[in-house]
Design goal:
Blueprint: E1 5-10, E2 15-22, E3 26-34, H1 36-40, H2 47-69, E4 78-84, H3 88-104, E5 109-113, H4 114-120, E6 132-137, E7 142-147, E8 154-158, H5 164-174, H6 182-189, H7 213-228, H8 235-261, E9 265-269, H9 276-289, E10 292-294, H10 298-301, H11 306-317
Parallel strand pairs: 1-4, 4-5, 6-9, 9-10
Antiparallel strand pairs: 1-2, 2-3, 6-7, 7-8
Helix pairs in contact: 2-3, 4-11, 5-7, 5-8, 6-8, 8-9
The chain binds 5'-O-[(R)-(carboxyoxy)(hydroxy)phosphoryl]adenosine and zinc ion.
Length: 334
């Protein structure tokens, strides 16, 4: 039984990342170079700026990942790369680096769906147990995904407008917090109270879909309203109220879908899974319901290449391969 070593590359947004993963779960190296400082002054990720940073960083990031893993290219079994969804220009930098590396060293090339990567981040810490429900909450995605086995994904519900992380970032922006706003809202909320009672999107409807644009508008309207009247608004209470509304919707939809699909394993994935109230509430509720919960450590919640390597391990055995015509794609089924 030979160990399978995969070099994984991820450049879908504003992190240039490479990692070597052995047998789908052992992290031999995990290098992430963040561009957040460059995007901060624009209040969000600027696609062209992201691509340029990826070009500058990618070769070095791969070299460091290989050096830290203490491996030569000939020790590898495959190269994996995020194929999408993401910023097309950004994806292409990682894809071209992966294609070149695979071609030069005669290695198979494995394309990986970014969201599959987020879910498989869990596998770096504990094996996935099926059937499971996965709540994927990031800057670009909000989805409930049912998995009956490895690499089998059924989308049970998804956002009809903003992603949760996007809502966090937009609300943070209107209360003058730096980008990305999620962690700042998280912090303010810890000393705030749910005094505003903002709407809980689609909570009463018979659907597992989400909607966060109404919540975002409600926050913005309230702020305008207070400003007009010259009343000082309590930012901590805004943050706490907003976050409470998000948590109520996420827990309600997740547990209802789990009862419906009769699943007792829950995986929460994506950058927003780093939120402390989300982590606490879900742990508490899962305990009470006898649900086995896995939320990755913070470093595996946000974008990284280790998660891509974890997912690629299963694709390796399914003979899922790409050739050198591989392109970045935004509309791909998971
Ligand atoms: O998964 P990720 O790194 O990138 C995407 O694929 O989108 O997620 C980034 C998102 C951002 O919107 C950021 O504000 C949010 O995750 N985020 C948080 C927290 N940490 C990161 N949102 C709420 N609370 C946090 N602690
Ligand atoms: Zn992501």
């Amino acid at each position: 039984n030979k160990d399978i070593k995969i070099l994984a590359i991820e450049t879908s947004c504003d992190e240039t990342a490479a990692s070597v993963i052995q047998n789908g779960s052992e992290v031999l190296s995990n290098v992430v170079v963040s561009q957040i400082e460059s995007h901060k002054r624009f209040g969000g990720v600027v696609p062209e700026v992201a691509s340029r940073h990826h070009v500058e960083a990618i070769t070095n990031v791969i070299e460091v990942a290989m050096t830290e893993a203490n491996l030569k290219p000939s020790d590898l079994d495959a190269v994996a790369v995020t194929e999408g969804p993401g910023l097309i220009g950004a994806l292409l930098i990682g894809i071209n680096a992966a294609k070149t590396y695979a071609f030069v060293h005669d290695l198979p090339l494995i394309p990986v769906h970014h969201i599959a990567g987020h879910i498989y981040a869990s596998q770096l810490e504990a094996p996935l147990q099926f059937p499971l429900m996965s709540l994927v909450i990031s800057g670009g995605h909000t989805e409930l995904i049912y998995m009956k086995d490895h690499m089998s994904f059924e989308i049970v519900g998804e956002t009809r407008d903003d992603a949760v992380g996007e809502a966090f970032d937009k609300v943070a922006r209107v209360i003058d917090l730096p980008y990305p706003g999620g962690p700042h809202i998280d912090k303010l909320a810890q000393t705030g109270e749910d005094t505003f009672d903002f709407p809980r999107g689609l909570i009463k409807e018979d659907t597992y879909d989400f909607s966060f644009s109404g919540l975002k508008s409600a926050v913005i309207n309230k702020l305008h309203n207070y400003r007009q009247k010259g009343i000082e608004i309590n930012k901590n209470d805004v943050a706490a109220s907003f976050q409470k509304s998000v948590v109520d919707v996420l827990t309600d939809k997740t547990f209802r879908s789990m009862e419906d699909y009769k699943v007792k394993n829950l995986v929460i994935a994506g950058g927003v899974a780093g939120n402390s109230e989300i982590r606490e509430e879900f742990s508490k509720l899962c305990n009470a319901r006898d649900v086995k919960l896995h939320i990755p450590s913070l470093k595996y919640c946000t974008d990284n290449a280790a998660m891509i390597g974890a997912a690629a391990y299963h694709l390796y055995f399914k003979d899922h391969r790409a050739d050198l015509t591989l392109n970045g794609r935004n509309f791909i089924d998971i």
